[in-house]
């Protein structure tokens, strides 16, 4: 009888690990907004990491968060770091790793606490017309086995996508209200 109980317990413990073998480990999310401003004006705004404080949902989650900067904003190598007691914000930094002037800016996000991860993110701008710009904001992530089991319980793509869209919607309002 004890042998059957131990075997049953082993199977119950093994099932999540087996299931995790068949669950994705990567996710990617991108959201878009069209802003009624020329592409040059929009790109000049979004390439400055400090401006994310004005539109990013994450930057606004903790008004007491400590922010530090290294380098020259809007240039490759600039780092914007944050530290918060709020576990939804945590501690980390973001570095500009590439700029294709007027078109794309790539970031490396380095999360330190409450979890460690390094993930890529980007923003792109594309002229729809002389006075309209399409902005894409994207983020990719990875969760190692067996932590990828969390994908069964948390829809990271939807959750992060909603935060990106909220930031883009705020960006649209900010830029369209500003005078040219």
Write the layout of secondary structure elements.
Layout: H1 2-20, E1 26-35, H2 39-46, H3 52-55, E2 66-70, E3 79-83, E4 91-100, E5 104-113, E6 117-129, E7 132-142, H4 156-177
Antiparallel strand pairs: 1-7, 2-3, 3-4, 4-5, 5-6, 6-7
Features:
alpha+beta; 7-stranded antiparallel sheet; Alpha-D-Glucose-1,6-Bisphosphate, Chain A, domain 4; elongated; 4 helices; 180 residues; single chain; 7 strands
What does this structure look like?
This protein has 180 residues and is α+β, with helices and mostly antiparallel strands. The chain has a single domain (25-177), classed as Alpha-D-Glucose-1,6-Bisphosphate, Chain A, domain 4, CATH 3.30.530. It has helices at residues 2-20, 39-46, 52-55, 156-177; strands spanning 26-35, 66-70, 79-83, 91-100, 104-113, 117-129, 132-142. A 7-stranded antiparallel sheet has the order 1-7-6-5-4-3-2. The longest helix has 22 residues, at 156-177. The radius of gyration is 20 Å and the shape is elongated.
């Amino acid at each position: 009888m004890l042998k059957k109980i131990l075997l049953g317990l082993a199977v119950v413990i093994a099932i999540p690990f087996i299931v995790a073998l068949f669950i994705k480990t990567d996710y990617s999310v991108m959201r878009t907004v069209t802003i009624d401003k020329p592409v040059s004006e929009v790109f000049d705004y979004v390439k400055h990491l400090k401006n994310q404080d004005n539109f990013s949902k994450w930057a606004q989650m903790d008004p007491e968060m400590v922010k530090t900067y290294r380098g020259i904003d809007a240039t490759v190598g600039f780092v914007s770091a944050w530290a918060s007691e709020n576990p939804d914000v945590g501690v980390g930094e973001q570095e500009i790793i590439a700029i294709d002037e007027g078109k794309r800016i790539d970031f490396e996000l380095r999360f330190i606490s409450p979890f460690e991860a390094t993930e890529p993110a980007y923003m792109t701008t594309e002229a729809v017309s002389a006075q309209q710009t399409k902005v894409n904001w994207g983020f990719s992530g990875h969760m190692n086995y067996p932590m990828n089991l969390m994908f069964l319980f948390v829809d990271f793509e939807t959750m992060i996508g909603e935060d990106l869209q909220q930031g883009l919607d705020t960006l649209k309002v900010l830029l369209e209200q500003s005078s040219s």
